[in-house]
């Protein structure tokens, strides 16, 4: 956008700083367009990864049974204040050890435990109360009993040690052939799943017993389970390296084990959906990272060989983000996940996965704990919000997960949203605009900001979400300029009621009071807004002479008011 959109009309200043004018401002202002006919993904939710380090409680101590996830204050903070509705947790090898120790060490985890065709007999060897697992079970069971929406996602970082052998050769690392290494605590770093029919069957049965055993222990099944976190990285923490072909065999082994159990137990099936490839990300426009990721996707496509097909796609959000100027390129990169890429300039082309299948951003982090970053890189809270927006509108992500809520010692770092129960941290505030207001079950609908009748994404980013049952529309708006922008919301112009408005521009989350339906909002420079309204006449044909064109089915276009 090229024009300074400052409200010069007769605005009202409400508590918290929201400015709403009952009539159009004298200065040129942004138009918004909503089309309720064009509906995209159904939202599943937002959250973080938990377990393991979250067992170190900053509130009550570190004794067993006193995990931060057992604490009522933490539950109210995560579910009630932040609005989180997803937990991602590791599928921990520590549940399967000789002696069933609460915190088994390397020696306890090396001896093979043979698994048979009977899932329930296999479960007898597992202990789902161990550190880093029992705390998650307690948490999600509480959510289920209270009726709070909470998607449970599991992710494998490493198979049991005895199922791994020499690391496969990916062609671009020097680690091929190295054996799994014992590293900190009880981690098994690197190596690869042994590629034999018997070992693959054992791996599949291990995953099946884990999925059903956790459900039996905590009255809560896994909704989604990732076969391997970042399958091409040889790291110092729990990890396992896969070629695309080996990854497909692992997915196939899990599918076969689920099918084996379901055939034998039709009244108690495993309904967990399999996710992949859970790789690093697609990168920016034209990035080679996308080529590598699609080498895995090609082998496990949901519409490919049913024996090796995933049900759900997941990728991490590390895509070189941060600069506002590159945002549209990153959105285009996300769109290639659905639509594919065809280029003639030396980049590898690939076929997109198409529509009608879920996609999750299963991990992201690296943003600094400040609102914006010097030098216009915006590697802070605004950058985080921008990258969530990009995934929502670019790849139709159904959910988005940040890496950690806090670290094991409760400190602030680039990989966490906050520390302890602190609700006044910039990244926590930015993420809250999505997590608290874009709720499970909502449908994203087409939304645009217009400049002279043309779509313009240079100043205000917009996404909108329909709650059909409630008859409401939730907007999330990002002013990515340093100056105030005036925006009129389509549903308010159509006679809808402003139910709730929240904003952040200083690293904190603020709520504003109710206002009349004038429709003009003043968005401070570098701010995030979440606004909930009723629909008004978005679904109706307006009376002649109203000055607003509403197309049948719900498309509404606001005409620009020009200076005299």
Automatic annotation (TrEMBL):
InterPro entries: 6GAL/EXGAL, GH, Ice-binding_C. SUPFAM superfamilies: (Trans)glycosidases (SSF51445). The keyword DNA repair does not apply. The keyword Signal applies. Gene3D superfamilies: Glycosidases. Residues 1-29 form the signal peptide. Keywords: Signal. PANTHER family: ENDO-BETA-1,6-GALACTANASE, ENDO-BETA-1,6-GALACTANASE-LIKE DOMAIN-CONTAINING PROTEIN. This is Uncharacterized protein. It comes from Phycisphaera mikurensis (strain NBRC 102666 / KCTC 22515 / FYK2301M01).
């Amino acid at each position: 956008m090229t024009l300074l959109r400052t409200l010069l009309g007769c605005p009202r200043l409400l508590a918290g700083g929201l400015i709403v004018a009952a009539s159009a401002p004298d200065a040129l202002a942004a138009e918004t367009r909503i089309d309720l006919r064009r509906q995209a993904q159904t939202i599943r939710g937002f959250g973080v990864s938990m377990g393991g380090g979250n067992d170190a409680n900053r509130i009550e101590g570190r004794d067993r049974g006193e995990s931060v996830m057992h604490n009522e204050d933490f539950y109210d903070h995560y579910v009630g204040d932040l609005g989180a509705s997803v937990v991602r947790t590791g599928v921990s090898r520590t549940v399967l050890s000789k002696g069933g120790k609460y915190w088994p060490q390397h020696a306890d985890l090396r001896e093979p435990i043979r698994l048979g065709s009977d899932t329930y007999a296999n479960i007898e060897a597992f202990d789902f109360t161990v550190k880093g697992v029992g705390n998650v079970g307690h948490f999600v069971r509480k959510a289920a009993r209270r009726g709070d929406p909470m998607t449970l996602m599991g992710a494998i970082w490493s198979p049991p040690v005895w199922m791994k052998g020499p690391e496969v050769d990916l062609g671009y690392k020097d680690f091929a052939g190295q054996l799994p290494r014992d590293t900190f605590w009880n981690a098994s770093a690197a190596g690869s799943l042994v590629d034999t029919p018997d070992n693959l069957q054992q791996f599949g049965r291990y995953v099946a017993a884990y999925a059903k055993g956790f459900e039996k222990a905590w009255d809560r099944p896994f909704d989604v389970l990732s076969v391997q976190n970042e399958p091409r990285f040889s790291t110092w923490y729990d990890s396992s390296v896969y070629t695309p072909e080996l990854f497909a065999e692992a997915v196939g082994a899990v599918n076969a084990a689920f099918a084996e159990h379901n055939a034998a137990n039709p009244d108690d099936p495993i309904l967990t959906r399999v996710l992949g490839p859970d790789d690093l990300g697609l990168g920016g426009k034209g990035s080679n990272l996308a080529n590598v990721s699609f080498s895995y996707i090609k082998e496990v496509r949901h519409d490919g060989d049913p024996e090796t097909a995933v049900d759900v796609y997941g990728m991490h959000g590390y895509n070189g983000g941060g600069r506002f100027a590159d945002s549209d390129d990153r959105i285009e990169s996300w769109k290639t996940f659905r639509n594919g890429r065809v280029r003639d300039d030396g980049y590898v082309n690939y076929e997109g996965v198409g529509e009608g299948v879920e996609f999750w951003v299963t991990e992201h982090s690296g943003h600094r704990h400040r609102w914006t970053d010097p030098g216009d890189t915006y590697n802070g809270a605004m950058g985080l919000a921008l990258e969530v927006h990009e995934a929502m509108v670019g790849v139709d992500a159904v959910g988005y997960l940040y890496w950690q809520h806090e670290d094991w010692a409760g400190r602030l770092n680039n990989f966490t949203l906050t520390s302890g129960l602190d609700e006044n941290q910039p990244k926590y505030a930015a993420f809250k605009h999505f997590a608290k207001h874009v709720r499970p079950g909502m449908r994203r609908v087409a939304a645009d900001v217009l400049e002279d009748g043309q779509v313009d994404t240079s100043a205000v980013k917009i996404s909108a979400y329909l709650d059909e049952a409630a008859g409401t529309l939730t907007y999330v708006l990002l002013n990515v300029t340093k100056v105030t922008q005036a925006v009129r919301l389509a549903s308010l112009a159509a006679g809808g009621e402003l139910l709730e408005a929240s904003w952040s521009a200083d690293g904190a989350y603020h709520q504003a009071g109710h206002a009349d339906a004038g429709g003009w909002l003043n968005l401070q420079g570098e701010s995030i807004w979440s606004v909930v309204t009723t629909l008004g006449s978005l679904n109706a044909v307006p009376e002649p002479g109203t000055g607003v064109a509403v197309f049948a089915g719900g498309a509404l276009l606001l005409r620009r008011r020009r200076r005299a």
